[in-house]
Design brief:
This protein is mainly alpha-helical and 222 residues long. The protein folds into 2 domains: 87 residues; 80 residues, no CATH class. The chain is 57% helix and 0% strand. The protein is built from 9 helices and no strands. Helix 1 runs antiparallel to helix 2 and helix 5 packs antiparallel against helix 6. It is elongated.
């Protein structure tokens, strides 16, 4: 019995073993005209196997590239497109270089907050910089409370602000952070309660009973 484990490895599984056998047969044909005729028939069958891709740009070009790939580039045929080099399919893309690599000191604040702090540090000293520093400090406190529901003291937030800005940002003496209870209350208001199915069912039942009572009263009054 012939098992798949003993058969030649499939180059492209999406075309199946029969297509690969047909291409191997085309490679063995010595007559050039007969071989080209066989190749055109194979291309037609390959296209029929994937009709949903016919609207893809250069679909025919891809079929011919796959044809030569499956033949391990042993097939000699008159292709309407340039025959691809084997290295085209084996060359791996270059690894992307990330220029924005940066170690985040506090992961729960995120990279965007760190970038915003860097931008604020670049501003000239003045009212605008002080207001933005206070705003970012309040945002740090809000973000901290998202992950830690316990009360957080302002000294800790000021310490985190200094660490994230490398000591370049400091709150002025007259600035205070928002109260913890106010922040939690605002977050609670944003979360609207989802009505339960029981409440919906009870409302429908009450509406049905009221309608039934009205119908009975109308019948008794006649």
């Amino acid at each position: 019995m012939d098992y798949n484990s003993t058969r030649p490895k499939l180059v492209m599984r999406e075309y199946g073993r029969n297509i690969q056998k047909m291409i191997d047969y085309a490679v063995s044909i010595e007559d050039k005209e007969k071989r080209n005729k066989e190749v055109r028939a194979i291309i037609s069958i390959m296209g029929q196997l994937h009709p949903h891709l016919r609207d893809v740009t250069d679909f025919k070009h891809k079929l011919w590239d796959h044809l030569f790939l499956i033949s391990n580039f042993k097939l000699e045929a008159d292709s309407p497109y340039p025959i691809p080099e084997p290295s085209y399919f084996t060359t791996k893309p270059k690894r992307l270089s990330y220029s924005n690599k940066r170690e985040i000191k506090f992961s729960h604040y995120g990279k965007t907050i760190a970038k915003m702090i860097d931008k604020i540090c670049e501003l000239e000293d003045g009212t605008e910089k002080d207001l933005l520093t206070n705003a970012i400090a309040n945002h740090l406190k809000k973000s901290y409370l998202t992950w830690n529901r316990d009360s957080v003291n302002d000294e800790l937030i000021v310490e985190h602000l200094g660490a994230l800005s490398n000591g370049r940002l400091k709150l002025t003496e007259n600035m205070r952070l928002n109260n913890t209870s106010e922040i939690l209350a605002r977050n609670k208001k944003k979360r609207k309660p989802i009505p339960s199915n029981n409440n919906t069912n009870n409302n429908n039942t009450n509406r049905y009973n009221n309608q039934r009572q009205n119908n009975n009263n109308r019948y008794n009054n006649q």
